């Protein structure tokens, strides 16, 4: 009989989970192989065997965060209303951040950088947002440069979610601020005619 596998998927999962928590709650330099292996009840050899080393482990955490956010954003249904789709994407982003606070902190805390001028990969979380913005631009609902609009929306979302995760906003305040701020950001990029018609509809009610 062969030797039993000790560095299996269960060990791999524990290492990723422990590394995620440590990266989210401690300075990155404190993530040592010895510390994460001890937390995961594994050996430093397991880290090398499963990930090739510390950089590979951090990469696995990053990949999990990117994949998770992309999956949730991509699952958001599209409609005939690009503005409704953009708001739905914002809701999905917030929901993922609240449900995966450690991964969110790791993703936007230095492990993964946001490069608004870089090439968008096939599984980049920004892709669903850019697609919705492109539809809004094509329909003359929004006006501007797609990447600039995406960065504006992302910066707004990130600020709101970060404050919420830090406990700076209570639940009711966070919900109200989210709704009003996202709508205000979208309105800032609307074409004048769409903005006027929207305001007229609101005043009519």
UniProtKB/TrEMBL annotation:
Superkingdom: Bacteria
InterPro entries noted in UniProt: Homeodomain-like_sf, HTH-type_TetR-like_transc_reg, HTH_TetR, MT1864/Rv1816-like_C, Tet_transcr_reg_TetR-rel_C_sf
SUPFAM superfamilies in alphabetical order: Homeodomain-like, Tetracyclin repressor-like, C-terminal domain
Domain HTH tetR-type: 9-69
Key word Transcription present: yes
Keywords: DNA-binding, Transcription, Transcription regulation
Entries under Gene3D superfamilies matching the protein: Tetracycline Repressor, domain 2
Residue ranges of the annotated DNA-binding region, renumbered to this chain: 32-51
Protein name, UniProt field: WHG domain-containing protein
The species this protein was found in: Streptomyces caniferus
């Amino acid at each position: 009989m062969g030797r039993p596998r000790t560095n299996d998927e269960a060990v791999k999962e524990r290492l990723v989970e422990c590394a995620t928590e440590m990266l989210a709650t401690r300075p990155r330099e404190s993530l040592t192989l010895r510390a994460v292996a001890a937390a995961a009840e594994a050996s430093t050899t397991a880290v090398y065997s499963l990930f090739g080393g510390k950089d590979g482990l951090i990469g696995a955490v990053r990949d999990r965060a990117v994949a998770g956010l992309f999956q949730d954003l991509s699952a958001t249904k599209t409609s005939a209303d690009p503005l409704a789709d953009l708001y739905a994407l914002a809701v999905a982003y917030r929901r993922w951040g609240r449900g995966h606070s450690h991964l969110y902190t790791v993703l936007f805390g230095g492990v993964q950088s946001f490069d608004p001028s870089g090439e968008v990969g096939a599984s980049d979380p920004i892709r669903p947002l850019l697609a919705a913005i492109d539809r809004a631009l094509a329909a003359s609902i929004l006006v501007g440069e797609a990447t600039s609009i995406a960065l504006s929306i992302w910066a707004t979302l990130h600020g709101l979610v970060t404050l919420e995760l830090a406990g700076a906003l209570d639940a009711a305040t966070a919900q109200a601020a989210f709704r009003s701020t996202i709508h205000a950001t979208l309105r800032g990029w609307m074409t004048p005619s769409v903005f006027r018609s929207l305001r007229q509809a609101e005043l009519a009610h």
